[in-house]
Amino acid sequence: MPRHRYLVGVAVLSLLAAACQPSASESPIGGPSEGAEPLGGSISILATWTDAEQESFLAMIQPWVDANGVEVEYEGNRDLATILTTRVEGGDPPDVAGLPNPGAMAEFARNGDLFDLGDVIDVDAMLADYNEGYIADGTVDGTLVGIFIKIAVKGLIWYNPQAFADAGYEVPTDWDGFTDLVEQIRSDGTTPWGVGLESGGDSGWPGTDWIEDFVLRQSGPDVYDQWWQGELAWSSPEIRAAFEAFGAWAADADYVAGGPNNVLSVNFGNGGDCLFADSPGCYLHHQASFMSSFFETNFPDVAVAGDTYDFFGMPGESYTGVTQSGDLFGMFRDTPQARSLLQYLVTADAQQIWVERGGAISGNGAVPLDAYPDDTSRRIAEILTSAEVVRFDAGDKMPAQMGRAFFGAILDYVQNPANLDQILSDLDAVQAEAYGT
Q1: Judging by DSSP bridges, how do beta strands 42-47 and 96-99 pair with one another?
Q2: Average pLDDT in the 354-381 region?
Q3: Do 358 and 352 form a contact (C-beta atoms < 8 A)?
Q4: Rounded-to-integer distance, Cα 283 and Cα 158, Å
Q5: What is the tens place of the pLDDT at every residue in 420-436?
C-alpha cells in the first residue's frame, strides 16, 4: 500500500558469528532441515516499511536470520513504486521486494521481472491456512508471483474514547447515526475530521481509500468490481457520488482540521494526531488498521488501545462490506536465500511475530486471535472473518497508470472541488488509455 516518501539508510543485520547460529539438530523455525548446513550468504530486501514498521519486519525475520546465518541488507523507502521500478529497469533489482500493489505486480510479472513462486511455495499447504482470495490476488495470468506478508483492514473510523465520553458522544451503529454524529461535532464547534493526504510521491492515496469505501457502501460490490476493472466510467453517477460524499467533508473547512489546504501537507501518519490534543482538534479519523502503530509511535505516553484510541467500522449507506489491502512480496532474483525467506514469511510462526508487536493483521488463519496484543486489534482481525462482503483496495487493483492518476485526482479535488467534472473527465481519458479501451 502506498505511503509517504522517506528513505531510511540500509539496515544490515549480520549474524554470522558461530555463537548466533543454532545447531542443525535444533531444526529451528525457518531454518535448515536436520543435518543440513545453514544457508549463510546474503539477501537484499527492499520494502516500504520504515520506523516502527521496519522494526517489526526485522523482528519478524530475526528467527530466520538466526537459524540461517544470512546477512540481510534491508532498505525501507516509502516511495517504493518509484525506487523499485528504477532498480528493476536499471538491471539492479533486490533479491526480494515488497510489491506496491497488485496492479504494479502484474506489470512486473508480464515484463518478466518476477519469478514464479509455484515451485517455491507449497500452494496446497498454504491454502490450508489462507483464503483462496489471497492466492488469487498474488497470481498473474495463472502464475503465483506474490505472497501476502500482512493485511490491512480499511474503512475504520478511529476515535478517542476518553474524548468521546467527555463530549457526550456515542459510537454510531448505522449510517444515519454516523452522519448525525459528524454534524453534531461540527455544530458543537470542532472540526469532526482529521485528515492527512501527504505521502511524498504517493500523496493522495489516503483519499482514494475514502472513495473506495463510499463506492462499496453506496453502490455495492458489483459496481465496485466494474469500476476497478475499467468497465465503469469515472464520470458515472456512482463514482461521482462517492467523490461528492468525500468532498462534503474533506474539502470543507468546517469539517476537516486545519482546512482543506492543510490536509494536503499533513502526512498520513499524522492525520489522526488531532485526536490526542488536550482540547481535541478533531474527533474522527478515517484510516486502515495499521494506523494503531502510528498512534503508538507518535504518542507513546498517551496512546493506549481501547482507552485513548479505538475504532468502529464505517457503516454502510445502502450496502455493507469491508475493504482491505495487503503487503505483497515477490522474488526478483532466484537465490536459495530468497526462496527460503519467502517460504518462512508465509508461515503462521513468522506472521505471529508482527501480530504480537501490534500494527499488523495476518491473512494466515492459523495465527490465533489471542496472539493479537489487545482487544482492539483482535476486533479488527475478526472483521475479516465475519464480513459477508470483502473487497481488495480498488486503486491497488487498477493498472499503475490509473492508480497514479487516482492519487492526483484526490489532491486536485480537495483543492478545487468545483472542478469535479473536469477531474472525472480526465480520469475517463486515463482509463481509456490504461485499459486499452
Answers
A1: parallel
A2: 91
A3: no
A4: 8
A5: 999 999 999 999 999 99
Nearest 5 degrees, angle CA 332-CA 78-CA 57? 70
The 3-state DSSP class for residue 193 equals strand
DSSP string, 147-190: EEEEEEE-SEEEE-HHHHHHHT----SSHHHHHHHHHHHHHTTS
Q: How does residue 35 score in pLDDT terms, banded at 50, 70 and 90?
A: low
Share of the chain above pLDDT 70, in %: 92
Name 23's Cβ contacts closer than 8 Å, sequence gap at least 6: none
Residue 190 — pLDDT band, cuts 50, 70, 90? very high
**Buried (b) or exposed (e) across 9-48, using 16+ Cβ within 10 A?**
eebebebeeeeebbebeeebebbbeeeeebbeeebbbbbb
End-to-end CA distance of the chain: 27
Kindly give the pairing relationship between strand 147-153 and strand 322-331: antiparallel
Provide the angle, in degrees to the nearest 10, between the axes of the packed helices 400-415 and 237-250: 50
CB 126 within 8 A of CB 351: no
Contacts of 208 (CB under 8 A, 6+ apart): 393, 394, 395, 403, 406, 407, 410
The pLDDT value recorded for residue 283 is 98
Q: How far apart are CA 123 and CA 135, in angstroms?
A: 8
Asked if residues 121 and 147 have their Cβ atoms less than 8 Å apart, the reply is: yes
CA distances from 400 to 108, 110, 161, 290, 391 (A): 11, 13, 39, 23, 18
Which pLDDT belongs to residue 28? 47
| Cell numbers 543435518: residue | 35
For the chain, domains (ranges, CATH) are 11-150+327-358 (3.40.190.10), 156-323+392-434 (3.40.190.10)
DSSP 256: B
Measured from the Cβ of residue 189, the count of other Cβ atoms closer than 10 Å reads: 6
